Amino acid sequence: MAQYLTTGGARDPFLPHLLGAIRQATEIDLAVAFIKSSGLALLYPALVDAIEIRGVRLRVLTSDYLDVTDPHALRRLLLLAERGADIRLFETDRQSFHLKAYICVRSQQSQTLWGAAFIGSSNISRTALTDGMEWNVRIDQVDEGMDLAAGRFREIRAEYQTLIDHPAVRSLDHDWIDAYEQRRQLLQRLPIAPGSDEPEEPPPQPTNLQQEALAALSETRRIGFQRGLVVMATGLGKTYLAAFDSERMGASRILFVAHREEILLQAEDSFQRVQPRARIGRYDSARKDMDVDLLFASVQTLGQTRHLEGFAPDHFEYVVVDEFHHAAAPTYRRLLAHFRPRFLLGLTATPERTDQSDILSLCDDNLVYSRHLFDGVELGLLSPFHYFGIFDETVDYQEIPWRNGRFDPEALSNKLATLARARHALRHWRDKGQQRTLAFCVSRRHADFMAERFQGEGIRAAAVYQGSTLERSAALEQLERGDLQVIFSVDLFNEGVDLPAIDTVLMLRPTESKVLFLQQLGRGLRRHPTKAHLVVLDFIGNHRGFLNKPQALFEVGSSYSELASFGRRARDGELKLPAGCFANYDLAVIEFLIRLQGRGPAAHYQALRDSLGRRPTLSEFYRSDANLPDLRRQHGQWWALVRDQGDLTPEETECLAKHEAFLREVETSNMMKSFKAVLLESLLHNDGFRQPPRIEDLATQALEVFRRRRHFVRDIRQDLQQIDSVDPKTWLKYWKSNPVNAWIGGNKKTDAATWFELSDGYFRPTFQVSDDEMETFQALVQELVDYRLATYEPRLTKAAPADPVESTKHSADIIPIRQPMAQEDEGIRLPFFPNLGIACGHFRSGRTDVETTCRIGENHGRLDPTRHFVARAVGDSMNGGKQPIRDGDYLLLELLDPSRAGSITGSLVVIERQDVSGEDQYLLRRVTKGESGQYVLRAANPDYPNVEATEDLRTLAQLRATLASSEVQMNDDRSKAT
């Protein structure tokens, strides 16, 4: 046993002594008169590590003595209680409580191996722990001998237990803190102790970017949306955004759902800082809090039906679902189908539209706000970076087993923990690295190996992981001070821990997840006065598993052709980067990317599967710019392609064989309005394939779908578009006429299969689905319905859904015209779609996936590049009359405004429809009225028959002029069109 004095001040501050003891302990007992937020912040990371990583038993006792303790510090202590700490409070009631005791013990199997107790003058404040003149006596016990000193140590521990059991001691909770905050009077006299006058940490305020997002969220709710998706890169504050938005909306009960513990813990801290008076609870395998303001829930637990049933659907007013990239999982769907909050917010940091597909479906295809990593750098919120894509020349990744979208962990670790690879990494680090490096390794063995190799070269390095000698918080402090140069970590720094001073990130492991890659990158993107830029050393191997890195950082698509195109741009120095940023790929990496080529639906599917690390959904396949008509020509339907790729389970294969015809009908049924898909969505929500619903319930549920997907309201007859107050009987009659009538075969003119029937007021399938296959069948159908809704959404004009117009009078906004282009002296540049042939014959398929520009003269009136575009005529049906249009002519077209669509009689109009494969088709005709008042689309060439306007046709654009080829000057990038 030993005892000695710490004197405080700059020469001997108390904080390092205390942190050193905390990091050795398996049991920690603290008793202090008051706790300030500033002091708790200095101890908090070490206390979190003690609980989370080492499983330490932590007890904290403080008091309301003289009302000095900060309420915010008390609320933060409750977050430690969420993690398992025992937090108590001594109510003084005019009784003095002036203790300052810190007891740390390391024991094993009930035997004390070591102990340290500090008794003295330091409360938990920044001043008392750092530069204040504070005397504290430290008493160390190294064994449990029977000498006098050891007895004193046991006495201290016994007295602490006596104090904990004192009648004035109570457990800390939100009710007590609320009452304390109400009665607490700020001291208006001289400080009573060092640090007692330190101000509470001010609440965070939204950044300018978050203000933009908050305005967008407010607007999306104003126009009627109940769900929305926000995409924000790591480091831009998406969790804080959710806290700010739920507070501004005035939500009384908030649910935050995630699939990982560390996300929930970080979110609790963020929400508490924004809403300090809110009562926080947890719902997971260990705790089941119910009556709280903010509930942080594990989806694995709350997503189970038996837990969901404990909450009314409207229990929460605001629901946040964070990073649910696997949101198609049944647990998420059950949760989102059960709850009906005033607003649901989906959060993600994933940049690629493919990865947003499932989230968009669950958020009613409502992308509210999007800011990516490059935006953060350009706005000055994130640090510029110098990125080096280094070829991993010492490892042949083709030799490592690849299973279920991942490398075999043991084989991977064996390949990476080699002397040759360590030398390769060391050489590049010495050449490009800076002062403070965080390195990501694949395993503990890999981290230890790399740390030993670097240490052998005289570099101050350490391995940090759960169970390592050096703890996370201690390692970060040493890195900050410069005592360490490199931390080799495993799974402890992916998120939730920020050290702004990190100036180099060393990526020594493959990351199958784009999100994980961006989180690791984000550890170093925080700005810091000592850091001009972040250096990223990313080791890339010869395997498809590395493709997600350029996809994540540069928002490259998932197809092999897009990756090859990216490789060519990288080779030619044409990558677009924010100011101050730099990117360089080794030639071997570029050659690997350029060699990636694949054609056809199967190759596209494989590329997407490799990118995601799992089987893609049809919505993801669609949003990755796949050719759906080719898919159906070669495979018949989506699930057949998945089957041909060997990705169906035995249950799914059997279900497809039995129900292939119906699944194809769902996927390809002609759908010029959203009604068929909305009905199926309503049917699935009501479990209607298992228990057929009453037609009234089905119609009511359809209204709920329209209330969430406000864009679709324009499909409804105009006098019924006030869906929040529509007459139920009128709505039921309308809904029975379409789509119920369509699904039961009322619109069919042939003997085609009828899939449903209306029997005794119930909507029933005409085919049988057994209980054994029901869950599989519904999942297959749900994926197709998500796709149909996703493909329909872009076909709607993006007018404000609060002011919808009659759907038969609106144009489809499938032409992806972007920002306005400036008027130039030689004329104006307009979008030109080389693959969009406007048929002047019979309906012809066209595509708008390639856009370039052309320049035309000034003699065509005032033109707006957001409304006007150019395409070519194909065919001779309009080659006649006074103004013939010939095959190959350039057409100047104007997207039709819904408010003006009623005045098109007599005009030349582009009509669009979808064929049975879902492919878009276009036709140019003159709109006239027939004798009975119906619209007729007339050709100018008598060799072509007229076409009667039907419900499956839409007006897209009106012809402004036919352009001579001499009037059209193509932009240089037209050669890139295909």
Report on this model:
- Residues 425-574 form the Helicase C-terminal domain.
- Pfam families: Helicase_C (PF00271), Peptidase_S24 (PF00717), PLDc_2 (PF13091), ResIII (PF04851).
- Residues 219-369 form the Helicase ATP-binding domain.
- GO terms for molecular function: ATP binding; DNA binding; hydrolase activity.
- This is Type III restriction protein res subunit.
- By secondary structure, the protein is α/β, with parallel strands linked by helices.
- The protein has five domains: 2-183, 2-Layer Sandwich (Endonuclease, Chain A), CATH 3.30.870.10; 208-371, P-loop containing nucleotide triphosphate hydrolases (Rossmann fold, 3-Layer(aba) Sandwich); 385-595, P-loop containing nucleotide triphosphate hydrolases (Rossmann fold), CATH 3.40.50.300; 673-810, no CATH class; 811-976, Ribbon (Umud Fragment, subunit A).
- It is 34% helix and 21% strand.
- It has 31 helices and 38 strands.
- The strands form six sheets. Strands 27, 28, 29, 30, 31, 32, 33, 34, 35, 36, 37 and 38 form a twelve-stranded mixed β-sheet that branches. An eight-stranded mixed β-sheet has the order 1-7-6-5-2-3-4-8, with helices on both faces. The protein has a seven-stranded parallel β-sheet with strand order 11-12-10-13-14-9-15.
- Helix 2 (37-52) links the parallel strand 2 and strand 3.
- Helix 2 packs parallel to helix 3 and helix 3 packs antiparallel against helix 9 (261-274).
Give the helix/strand layout.
Elements: E1 2-6, H1 14-22, E2 27-32, H2 37-52, E3 57-63, H3 71-82, E4 86-90, E5 100-108, E6 111-120, H4 126-129, E7 136-141, H5 148-164, E8 169-171, H6 174-183, H7 208-222, E9 227-232, H8 238-249, E10 254-258, H9 261-274, E11 280-283, E12 294-298, H10 299-302, H11 305-308, E13 318-322, H12 330-338, E14 343-348, H13 357-362, E15 367-371, H14 373-378, E16 385-391, E17 402-403, E18 406-407, H15 409-416, H16 419-432, E19 437-440, H17 444-456, E20 461-464, H18 472-481, E21 486-489, E22 504-507, H19 514-522, E23 534-540, H20 548-554, H21 560-571, E24 582-585, H22 587-594, H23 600-612, H24 618-623, H25 628-635, H26 638-644, H27 650-668, H28 675-685, H29 695-708, H30 728-743, E25 756-759, E26 762-765, H31 771-792, E27 823-824, E28 827-839, E29 844-845, E30 852-856, E31 868-874, E32 890-895, E33 908-914, E34 920-929, E35 935-938, E36 947-948, E37 954-963, E38 969-970
Parallel strand pairs: 2-3, 3-4, 9-14, 9-15, 10-12, 10-13, 11-12, 13-14, 16-23, 16-24, 19-21, 19-22, 20-21, 22-23, 28-31
Antiparallel strand pairs: 1-7, 2-5, 4-8, 5-6, 6-7, 17-18, 25-26, 27-28, 28-30, 29-34, 30-38, 31-32, 32-37, 33-34, 33-37, 34-35, 35-36
Helix pairs in contact: 2-3, 3-6, 3-9, 7-8, 8-9, 16-17, 19-20, 21-22, 26-27, 27-31, 28-29, 28-31, 29-30
